[in-house]
Specification:
CATH class of the largest domain: Alpha Beta
Structural class: alpha/beta
Number of domains: 3
CATH topology of the largest domain: Rossmann fold
Radius of gyration: 23 Å
Largest sheet: 6 strands, mixed
Order of helices and strands: HHEEEHEEEEEHEHEHEHEEHHHH
CATH superfamily of the largest domain: P-loop containing nucleotide triphosphate hydrolases
Bound molecules: guanosine-5'-triphosphate, magnesium ion, zinc ion
Strand order of the largest sheet: 10-9-8-11-13-12
Strand content: 15-25%
């Protein structure tokens, strides 16, 4: 097992991480961080070089859900082969934070976005992408995992300073403690405020719809057009995602940043904490509901309904809260149902195998 080298430290590894490792036999294993996730393979780094890696078969076969697979940003224990050109991931070190959403479409499972993120930048562009309800959705996902959210409103060159301020006030009015800033990728001084937010040893990630300028910002922070962004001329690529996979990048200032493909759909489940923290005033208000199990829809003495009625709570915010709550409960139920069926199926297989054995 390697020492906590300077290289690992630069990637954010410290004693607190080391203390999380409980594996007894560490012989031949190295600490590394996942920098990219492809379909069946990973890129990992020990701070010196990036190496292609695969997951140990045993880990794969004992996986219960998507949560058991490595995500970008994960710390792992890996064995290196072929002069350090290939590696096998043996174990994921317990995560500090995890960004996850419901997998797109009808599938009820988690999709991992990134692990061990300290600060998440929610990027919305100030043109028609600006949407407070969508922002609440992202915040719920981020708050679920103890990650600090910062809202970055991009393309502020497209609006007048007064209009930009109006948008910021609109957010601040309902979420006064949220850090909200605007920036622009097209002017050299336009993203200085974002640069100033970055600290070495901290891992950030860029989240937001396709086309809001996440990769343009990353390129600006690197100071080089290293990653592909949408070209204005590419009219036919409208709606297509330019960034196709998640990747962790080390910046010169020592900060690490994960760029992600734009998300069209942000389905949620298991978001109880996230909802509580995003909708703090609703959580507070609901304590005054007459019934403990108030669903806040029709009940007499519902504090939320009366707050909406007398204008103390925005109706749209209240509706978004209910919608996400309902959606999460529905997905949660389907997920548990699915797991139950899988378990029953597993049991059935075992019984059949046993009976077969007994017949022999
Ligand atoms: N006017 C203006 N255009 C911008 C700004 N930032 C990005 N753009 C343009 O917006 C388009 C999309 O930018 P990208 O950086 O590729 O967007 P993305 O968020 O990475 O998109 P995906 O990878 O698909 O998720 C490009 O044509 C950029 O030139 C900005 O601050 N102002
Ligand atoms: Mg991109
Ligand atoms: Zn109520």
């Amino acid at each position: 097992m390697n020492e906590i080298t300077h290289n690992l430290e630069e990637l954010g590894f410290d004693k607190r991480w080391r203390d999380k490792i409980h594996t007894e036999n560490l012989e031949g294993l190295n600490i590394a961080r996942v920098t990219a996730v492809h379909k069946d393979s990973y890129m990992i780094t020990n701070g010196e070089s990036d190496v292609l890696a695969e997951l140990l078969g045993k880990v794969m076969y004992s996986a219960n859900s998507a949560l058991d697979y490595p995500a970008v940003g994960d710390w792992v224990l890996a064995s290196y082969y072929d002069h350090n050109t290939f590696a096998i991931i043996h174990e994921i070190i317990q995560r500090k934070t995890l960004l996850k959403r419901k997998a797109a479409g009808k599938k009820i499972d988690f999709q991992l976005i990134a692990a061990n993120i300290d600060v998440a930048f929610i990027v919305q562009s100030l043109d028609d992408n600006f949407n407070v309800r969508r922002l609440e959705r992202y915040l719920t996902m981020i708050n679920e995992s103890n990650i600090k959210p910062i809202v970055l409103l991009s393309k502020n060159d497209l609006l007048s300073p007064v209009e930009v301020e109006e948008r910021i006030v609109e957010i601040k009015k309902i979420m006064p403690n949220l850090d909200v800033q605007s920036f622009c990728n097209t002017k050299e001084s336009g993203f200085k405020n974002v640069q100033e937010l970055l600290n070495s040893g901290i891992t950030y990630c860029l989240l937001g719809s396709s086309g809001v300028g996440k990769t343009s910002l990353l390129n600006n922070l690197i100071g080089d057009n290293r990653f592909k962004t949408k070209q204005v001329r590419e009219k036919d690529s409208k709606g297509r995602h330019v960034t196709t996979h998640r990747q962790l990048i080390m910046l010169d200032c020592g900060a690490m940043i994960v760029d992600t493909p734009g998300m069209r759909e942000l389905g949620n489940f298991s978001i109880e904490t996230g909802l509580k923290e995003t909708f703090t005033e609703i959580t507070e208000l609901s304590r005054n509901c007459l019934f403990n199990d108030c669903t806040h829809v029709v009940e007499k003495g519902c504090a939320l309904l009366s707050a909406v009625k007398n204008g103390k709570l925005s109706e749209k915010r209240y509706e978004n809260f209910l919608k996400m709550n309902k959606e999460s409960a529905f997905n949660e139920m389907s997920y548990l149902e699915k797991r139950k069926k899988e378990k029953q199926f597993g049991k059935m297989c075992k019984t059949i195998m046993k009976e077969k054995k007994n017949l022999k």
